[in-house]
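Researcher: Next entry in the queue.
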Amino acid sequence: MSYKVMGIDPSSTIIGVSLADEQGKLLSGMLIKPSSSELDNISRVFDMAHELKETLNIWRPEYIAIETPATHVAGRIKKATGMAIYGFGAGVASWVAHSWMETQGDLRKLKCYEAQRWTRGKPKKDRAQLLAIRCRLYKRVMSDDPGYDVAEAIQLAEICLKELQIEARMPKSGTIAEKV
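Model: Structure for this entry, 180 residues:
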């Protein structure tokens, strides 16, 4: 059975999304931006959440890989208000992904990754440049991805695919005990 994985790099200002097939072929990558620069923080987050939901409905992934907020971002965001807005944006995007996957009937297919765990502390720019070397589609859109959000979404989808491949090679629950 063929399946697709959607990677989501959420925030309160822009959302990076990607779509890959089970072979790891990148099918699409794009940025979800607010429809207007005049929107206040709350309206901007909900505007992007609506677009994220529409993208989910069009792409219809079997799996979603999303980055979850981690404590490391607090050091990058200077004001407590900025941290709250970022957390709100990431939380709303996570809620949209969770709700959409719930309607699909299997929340186990929503994979959440804490940034420090999957990035191993390597800077976004360095990871994006390495991605551009091995991924022609990303290389073409890299100039339109100044914050490397699409790169992050692609890498999240790749991590999910690797985990799914490992799971597929593992014996099903109970098979080892049955053979003993």
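Model: Confidence is low (pLDDT under 50) at residues 174-180.
Researcher: Noted, moving on.
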